[in-house]
Amino acid sequence: MQEPEKTNLYLVPTPIGNLEDITLRAIRVLKEVDVILAEDTRTSGKLLQHLGIEKRMHSHHLHNEHKATTHLVDRMKTGEVMALISDAGTPGISDPGFYLVRECLKNDLKVECLPGATAFVPALVKSGFTTDRFTFEGFLPIKKGRQTRLQSLANEERTMIFYESPHRLLKTLTQFKEYFGGERMVSVSREISKMFEETINGTLDELIHIFTTKAIKGEFVIVLSGEKAGKASSAE
């Protein structure tokens, strides 16, 4: 009987809030690998301590990803098995991971991604907007390219999903009103799976008013409804 192909790199989602969101498989993999690549070893160290896992960790973040990848690939070629985790959620989704995965595949190393926590899926499902077609936009460019990106989405009919930080939330909602209109429906979720989780639905005008008078704390997922596909047919 042929043995299954050995996995060289595991992408392991970690909880985005509630520590109970870790899967049994994720715990097993983290215990079995030779080394864990962590976005922030201090943050991940607390999680591993909570899970009772003692394992070597190496720092792997956006600032050293390119420099460290060749060395890591060479080590995996010698037989080391590694797991990549981010501070929260699935590696590679607005977190380090893409470059390492690409280089592993180029070198015929097997990569396996475990299913698990990510912020945009619960935010999308809770929004009540259509989920059959959607586009994940992540964080918008802060300066260069921001207006171009928004202009390209002005006629998007799919539901759109964005990540945003608290100090830019109101600015982003205001820009959305400029490009999509104040009556466009939007859903804003914060602190998903954490103690102060909250989702607010309404028009862009309504949510701009709410967040103008409300303390803005936490990490946010914005789910914006797409332009209504029936717009052209209604004019016939």
TrEMBL record:
Boundaries of every Tetrapyrrole methylase domain copy: 9-207
Entry's localization field: Cytoplasm
Single GO biological process annotation from the record: methylation
Keyword terms of this UniProt record: Cytoplasm, Methyltransferase, rRNA processing, S-adenosyl-L-methionine, Transferase
Main subcellular localisation: cytoplasm
S-adenosyl-L-methionine listed as a keyword: yes
Assigned EC number: 2.1.1.198
Reactions catalysed: cytidine(1402) in 16S rRNA + S-adenosyl-L-methionine = 2'-O-methylcytidine(1402) in 16S rRNA + S-adenosyl-L-homocysteine + H(+)
PROSITE patterns: RSMI
GO MF, one annotated term: methyltransferase activity
Pfam families noted in UniProt: TP_methylase (PF00590)
Function of the protein: Catalyzes the 2'-O-methylation of the ribose of cytidine 1402 (C1402) in 16S rRNA.
Record-stated family: Belongs to the methyltransferase superfamily. RsmI family.
Protein name per UniProt: Ribosomal RNA small subunit methyltransferase I
Organism: Pontibacter aydingkolensis
Gene: rsmI
